[in-house]
TrEMBL record:
One of its GO terms (molecular function) is transaminase activity. The keyword NAD does not apply. Keywords: Aminotransferase, Pyridoxal phosphate, Transferase. The keyword Coiled coil does not apply. It comes from the Bacteria. Signal peptide: none annotated. Pfam families: Aminotran_3. The lineage of its organism: Bacteria, Pseudomonadati, Pseudomonadota, Alphaproteobacteria, Acetobacterales. InterPro entries: Aminotrans_3, Aminotrans_3_PPA_site, PyrdxlP-dep_Trfase, PyrdxlP-dep_Trfase_major, PyrdxlP-dep_Trfase_small. This is Aspartate aminotransferase family protein. Belongs to the class-III pyridoxal-phosphate-dependent aminotransferase family. Its cofactor is pyridoxal 5'-phosphate.
Length: 435
């Protein structure tokens, strides 16, 4: 039997024991703010979990969900359909990079990663190259926690409890170089790290590799921004060797980098693009994969009559999620959220880099409205310094996120100058106090 109100829930990616001893609860949200159950205001510098890009509790979205819930609670999308699913897919195709117009719905970023990997495998099989089965990820990459995404992911701690995972997988090196410390936006050094793909091609044979999956900006392992020319080079090598390129845009999508997707900001278009989080402003779970026309046509048109792709979720294209996605895209369009993010980005960048002389700060990285502040760990006590800073911020009305000893910031895109000042002031004090 649970011992108190908190005991029954086994919390995800949480130190359950210490959390339940001293819980941090959020019970209400609006705009840039959360409130605790006691009514204490907390400024959200993380857009929830990289997902509430349009700010909290947007009436347009909640009304669309409510309206839909009372008219079409659910409709199956296996061999059936409902209008909102097709409308949502068309609207998403309106903001994805040109050519990535075929939208497959999932319910999360993890499901999107596994879906994209499976579509890549199905594509090669339909294209007469069934031997292309190897999947290439990257060290320090995060593609969610299902078996496919975990296998191509590069976070040791996430993998080690779960055995060998998928076998036919290899990894590129990560792009974090000490010579790039305190770079602003894209670092100068490291384009040659993409050449590791040539090494993997030589090792495994080009015609055995199905796809390469990377986050344009790696978020979960501490905000790793691609060096100048790196993504372009990966794209060129994939083209040269017939390998599909997948961008995991679960956090970089929906305006976070000042463009609808990071692909546009970096001028590199993948063959498959995964999304989730900001797609519905996080009001209802939803993810999606955008596939190129060539991939869709190859899989669908080369299949025998009947179902072409044996994949899907009961809740793929759930009506409530579709309604939320359409309303979210309306807000992004009407309020020009990507442009708004782009306009405030220089102020954001200067503000976060102003923290460089605080004690223990060893690097600061930024991309769009994302920032990573890396700290020297306390000797023999990894992650404790960042955890103390996080608690100090929360006690003083600021929500930040930490990953090991890096602070990751990703505020809602409706951020204003006063919010930037509050974030930097409170965080600066917290960093100075954690010595
Ligand atoms: N991919 C990336 C790049 C992410 O950052 C995340 C979550 O943070 C995921 C996938 C997993 O998304 P979800 O937690 O919705 O499954």
């Amino acid at each position: 039997m649970p011992r108190n109100d908190l005991d029954a829930a086994w919390m995800p990616f949480t130190a359950n024991r210490s959390f339940k001893a001293a819980p941090r609860l959020l019970s209400r949200a609006d705009g840039m703010l959360y409130w605790t159950p006691e009514g204490r205001e907390v400024l959200d510098a993380t857009a929830g979990l990289w997902c509430v890009n349009a700010g909290h509790n947007r009436r347009q979205i909640t009304e669309a969900i409510t309206r839909t819930a009372t008219s079409l609670d659910f409709a199956p999308t296996f061999q059936m359909g409902h209008p909102l699913m097709f409308e949502a897919a068309s609207r998403i195709a309106g903001v994805t990079p040109p050519g990535l117009d075929r939208i497959f719905f999932t319910n999360s970023g993890s499901e999107s990663a596994d879906t994209a990997l499976k579509i890549a495998l199905a594509y090669h099989r339909a294209n007469g190259q069934p031997q292309r089965t190897m999947l290439i990820g990257r060290e320090r990459g995060y593609h969610g926690i299902n078996f496919g995404g975990l296998s191509v992911g590069g976070i040791g701690a996430n993998r080690k409890q779960f055995g060998p995972l998928l076998g036919n997988v290899d990894h590129l090196p990560h792009t974090h170089l000490p010579s790039n410390r305190f770079a602003r936006f894209q670092p100068e050094h490291g384009v040659e790290l993409a050449d590791a793909l040539t090494g993997l091609v030589q090792l495994h044979g080009a015609d055995s590799i199905a796809a390469v999956i990377v986050e344009p900006v790696a978020g979960s392992t501490g905000v790793l921004v691609p060096p100048v020319g790196y993504l372009e080079k990966l794209r060129a090598l994939c083209d040269e060797h017939g390998i599909l390129l997948i961008f995991d845009e679960v956090i970089t999508g929906f305006g976070r980098l000042g463009t609808p997707f990071a692909a546009e900001r970096f001028g590199v278009t993948p063959d498959l693009l995964t999304m989730a989080k900001g797609l519905t402003n996080a009001a209802v779970p939803m993810g999606a994969v955008a596939a190129s026309e060539a991939i869709y046509r190859t899989v669908v048109e080369n299949a025998p009559p009947g179902i072409e792709l044996f994949h899907g979720y009961t809740y793929s294209g759930h009506p409530l999620a579709c309604a939320a996605a359409i309303a979210t895209l309306d807000i992004h369009r009407d309020e020009e959220l990507p442009a708004r993010a782009r306009a405030i980005e220089p102020e954001w960048r200067e503000a976060v880099h102003s923290l460089r002389d605080r004690p223990g700060v060893v690097d600061i990285r930024d991309a769009g409205l994302i920032a990573g502040i890396e700290l020297e760990p306390f000797a023999g006590r990894p992650a404790e310094r960042a955890a103390r800073i996080m608690q100090h911020c929360f006690d003083n009305g600021l929500l930040i996120r930490t990953t090991a000893d890096t602070i990751a910031l990703s505020p809602p895109l409706i951020l204003e100058r006063t919010h930037i000042d509050r974030i930097v002031t409170t965080l600066g004090e917290a960093i100075s106090a954690a010595t």
